[in-house]
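Quick start: what a row looks like.
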Amino acid sequence: SDHYLDVDYDLSKVMFITTANIRYAIPLPLQDRMEIIELPGYLDYDKREIAKRHIIPKELKAHGLTDKMLRFTDDAIDKIINEYTREAGVRNVERELASICRKAAKEIVLSRRKNGHAKKKHAVIVVAADRIEHYLGVPKFRKKEAERKRRVGSVTGLAWTSVGGDILNVDVTIMNGTQKLTLTGQLGDVMKESAQAALSYIRSNAKQFGVHPDFTKGKEIHIHLPEGAIPKDGPSAGITMAMAIISAASNNPARNDIAMTGEITLRGNVLPIGGLNEKLLAAQRSGITTVIIPKENVNDLSEIPEKVKEGLKIIPVETIEEAAKIVFERGRRRS
C-alpha cells in the first residue's frame, strides 16, 4: 500500500533496479537480498575515445561549432581526464569539454565582429595540452608520479579505488621508543591487520632479509600512507608494507621503478587481488616500469588489453621472499 495516496499496488511482477558508485555504503542485509552486477569504470584510453567519437561532436553541434572551427588534440583530452576529473565515468569530462566549447565560441564571435563591423574569418582554434589551463584554470587534481630517488623505508604500491587505479606510497620509519607498531593515514581494519601480519612474518624470518633478529627491541615502527584525508582499506597493500618494513629495518633502499600489489599471509605467501586492470594502468601512467603481482593473477593478464600492459614488465611472485629479491636486487645488507 502506498503511504502517501493510500492506494494498493501490485508489486509482484515489478523488478527494482538501483545503481550505486560505491558498494560498501549499501547495508549488508540489503546486499544479501540483491543480485549485484559490477560494471568496471572506463579506463583512460576508453574515456579518450568516448570523448573523440561522441562527446566532442555533440558539444560542437550544441555550441554552433564545427571541427573546422575548434579541434582538440589527444594530449589535451588526456590532460582533462587526468588533471581536471577523477571519476569512473565521463560525466565531468563532458562538463569540462562543454566549458571549453563555450569559451572558444565566445572567442570566435568576438574576433569576427568588432565595433559592429564583420572581421576576417577566424582561424581554427586548436586546443592543445598547454592551452587547457587558459580555458579551465589550475588543474583540480595532482598527477601522481613514482619516486625519483631510492629512499630507505619508502615503497610504491598499487591501489584500486571507485574511480580507477592509483599508486600508493608506503613510508616506514624505525625510531627509539616504546616497542610498538603505529599506523597512520586513515587506514581501515583490514589494512591494519595486513601491516601486523607483515611485521610478524619479517620478525620470524629476519635473517632471510638481512635484518637483525631484534630490530624491534626498544623501537617504535611507524607506518604511514600519505594523503591522510582519504580513507584506505583492503588487503592488497600487504606486500608493499612488508617491503617497506624490510627496507627500513635493513637500511636498504627499494627500487623506485617498481610497484606491487598482493595480499600476504603469516606464512609469507602472496595471495591474489582484484582490480588488476586499473592498477596496471595506474602504474603505466605514473612512470613505473616493473610491476609485481601475485602468481595466481597471471590468468587475469590474458583479459587485460595490450595497451594497458604496454611498457610494463610484469613479474608474478608466490612468496614475500621472491618479491624481496626483485625489490632489493642489489643485495641486502644487515643493519
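That is the whole record. Residues 57 and 67 are 8 Å apart (CA to CA). The chain has two domains: 44-136, 154-327.
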